[in-house]
Amino acid sequence: PTARGRRRIDLAISTNGRDELLAEFWVRVLPPPRIRITEVLVDPLIDVNGDGTVSHYEDQFVELQNMDSVRVDLGGWRIESGGDTFRMPGDVIVPPGDVVVVFGRIDEGHRPSWGINAGGRIAGGLSSDGRLAVATPTGADTLLKVTCVAAERGASVVPRDESGDVWIPHPDTG
Which residues contact 129 (CB under 8 A, 6 or more apart)? Predict the structure, then answer.
């Protein structure tokens, strides 16, 4: 659903050509949350996750920002890449305007509140010529799709503008 509002759902049974209303439900319809991919690091050259070692998969990251005016629960949402899927844990609540960063691996003992551990790699691993998608828990809505772009080794990429159609090297790393 893309329009807010209330919708009526009637549950009826038809017997001998007569409809009999069994129940009437009113539901509140909300549009999908406005989550945006704001930064991606595909080819790390430094220890980004702070564990003391440089690892191609473990230091990769995807940053997601809540662009909505309400908290968004990302529990069960999926990141798909490299032919595999990473499912977000159930405790990822993102306040309005805040970000979460999904790392390939991050030490649970030193994990910041905004850091998510993907357990070794994000889905099948990110690649500069691969597809990255973020989808809702039901799989009914793929909200974000990005084709990872080539950047200088070690440089993360960010969307050039709000549309997210064109990605450029991060100004601090490119």
Answer: 148, 150
